[in-house]
Specification:
The chain has 162 residues and is mainly alpha-helical. The protein is 56% helix and 0% strand.
Length: 162
């Protein structure tokens, strides 16, 4: 699995995983964050997970990823959201924060990721709508954090002749 794929899956665990655990405990987070502060906190997960040397191909362990996600969830709960977030997106944010604070290394197994990718069997249409609203708000407000990650150039693979 590539570094980019591994980091993308981390985001998927959070955003898709929120629909399986939308219980709303992140409601105490501030609702007056600056957009810059919100985006800095939101995008910090990817920078925290990036290996110091991208050329090694070394990936963070599941345990390291889980701890980074927990730390990110705590930071997001501390920073909160900007005032202009919709109610649905705010509820999605609260679910993401809850999910992040409860995540553990086993949540990064391929079986778990496949389950989460399908949205979770118990997710209601409302929960899915809220998770999608937060994901859309996050991307519209802060951009895609993967766009800022400079991946090393891969060597060209010679054409095979079969």
């Amino acid at each position: 699995m590539t570094i980019r794929a591994r980091l993308t899956l981390t985001g998927a665990v959070l955003l898709v995983g929120t629909v399986t655990s939308a219980c709303g405990g992140g409601g105490g987070a501030p609702s007056d964050a600056s957009k810059d502060g919100f985006c800095e906190a939101a995008n910090s997960l990817m920078s925290d997970l990036m290996p110091a040397d991208l050329t090694t191909g070394e990936l963070p362990s599941d345990k390291d990823m889980a701890q980074a996600v927990k730390d990110w969830g705590s930071r997001m709960a501390e920073v909160g959201t900007p005032e202009d977030i919709s109610d649905d997106a705010r509820k999605g944010f609260e679910s993401v924060v809850d999910q992040a604070q409860e995540i553990d290394a086993s949540d990064f197994s391929m079986d778990k990721l496949e389950d989460l990718e399908e949205g979770g069997a118990d997710a209601s249409a409302e929960e899915k709508k809220q998770a999608e609203a937060f994901g859309t708000y996050l991307t519209d407000t802060c951009g895609n954090p993967m766009d800022d990650i400079e991946m090393p150039e891969m060597p060209e693979i010679p054409d095979s002749t079969s």
